[in-house]
Backbone:
């Protein structure tokens, strides 16, 4: 039999991921003179536009979401706050892709990025049993975190259902069952209030007391958060959870939930039992379901062949912008200080500008 050959396509740049950072990067690559499909390719593993937002549950409305940032030169406007956030973002990102004529290739999942051995990076992509390879002078990795939900380990064994934020579909699925929500971030808080509205019995567990903060959110605050995270990523350490840097911003509905007892944490888990959990204060709760709203880790498996991991578990960031990682031509759009939603609008442009400088320098050499 004749072996199946894999097409190898040549591009100046491959952008991995069509979420906020990836689309922002693509915009600035176009502004810098590169043409979609001819000079750069955008690959996305999702079947529709919208990035991670395309997977959110119906009950998460735009009004409940903690802000959707505008894409470059393309304002979102004022959609109906009662509309599911997923549908708003799918429509908005899809319109942006058409406006920018990006011709995003989907659902092509990048499985690996490696050194070709002769200059360019080799990008392997797969879709429905087919394969496609790219040789690219630069790669912008903007894969986000949605594919890697984090579940902490505890001693013991729980025999009931367990799911993560990524698995959540509808609050109606939990009627008649007692749900333990684990996690100290905004997602956990939103789940608790949503389940309460559907008369679902809940228990809340956090490792630390909830970090409620009264703060005005603005550019200066966002820059402060990024600087704190950057100090970790520059040392090659994991960035840590979003809430550990931002806290939980107080809202009237949260204060009401605290008063009702819904948003009162039982504290850390000591161990899992067959029918529930033991808490570190010595108490026990029987539950039917554990919902792990314990965050995500950067989706970086495709970069494994480049061996970029530091001993501390992080991905070392090489410059003050917090976007470039130490491999020729590789830019981590959401791997460093800008892994959170608030940082993505800045990560993409910085990665694009760095990529354009790299291409100019190589052309001049």
Residues:
């Amino acid at each position: 039999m004749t072996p199946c050959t894999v097409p190898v396509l040549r591009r100046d740049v491959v952008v991995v991921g069509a979420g906020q950072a990836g689309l922002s990067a693509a915009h600035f690559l176009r502004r810098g003179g590169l043409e979609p499909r001819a000079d750069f390719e955008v690959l996305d593993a999702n079947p529709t536009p919208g990035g991670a937002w395309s997977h959110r549950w119906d009950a998460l409305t735009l009004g409940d979401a903690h802000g959707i940032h505008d894409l470059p030169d393309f304002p979102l406007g004022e959609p109906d706050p009662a509309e599911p956030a997923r549908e708003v973002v799918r429509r908005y990102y899809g319109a942006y892709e058409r406006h920018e004529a990006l011709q995003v290739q989907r659902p092509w999942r990048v499985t690996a990025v490696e050194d070709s051995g002769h200059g360019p990076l080799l990008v392997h992509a797969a879709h429905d049993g087919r394969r496609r390879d790219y040789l690219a002078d630069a790669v912008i990795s903007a894969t986000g975190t949605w594919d890697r939900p984090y579940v902490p380990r505890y001693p013991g064994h729980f025999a009931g259902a367990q799911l993560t934020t990524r698995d959540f579909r509808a609050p109606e699925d939990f009627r008649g069952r007692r749900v333990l929500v684990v996690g100290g971030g905004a997602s956990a808080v939103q789940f608790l209030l949503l389940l309460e509205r559907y008369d679902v019995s809940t228990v809340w567990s956090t490792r630390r007391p909830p970090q409620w903060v009264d703060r005005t959110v603005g550019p200066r605050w966002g820059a402060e958060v990024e600087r704190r995270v950057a100090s970790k990523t520059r040392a090659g350490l994991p960035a840590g959870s979003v809430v550990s840097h931002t806290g939980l911003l107080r809202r009237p509905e949260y204060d009401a939930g605290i008063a009702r007892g819904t948003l009162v944490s039982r504290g850390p888990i000591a161990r899992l039992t067959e029918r529930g959990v033991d808490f570190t204060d010595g108490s026990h709760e029987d539950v039917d379901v554990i919902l792990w709203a314990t965050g995500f880790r950067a989706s970086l498996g495709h970069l494994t062949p480049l061996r970029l991991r530091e001993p501390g578990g992080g991905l070392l960031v090489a410059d003050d912008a917090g976007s470039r990682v130490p491999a020729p031509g590789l830019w981590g759009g959401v791997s460093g200080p800008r892994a959170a939603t608030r940082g993505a609008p800045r990560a993409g442009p910085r990665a694009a500008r760095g990529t354009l400088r790299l291409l100019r320098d190589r052309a001049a050499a």
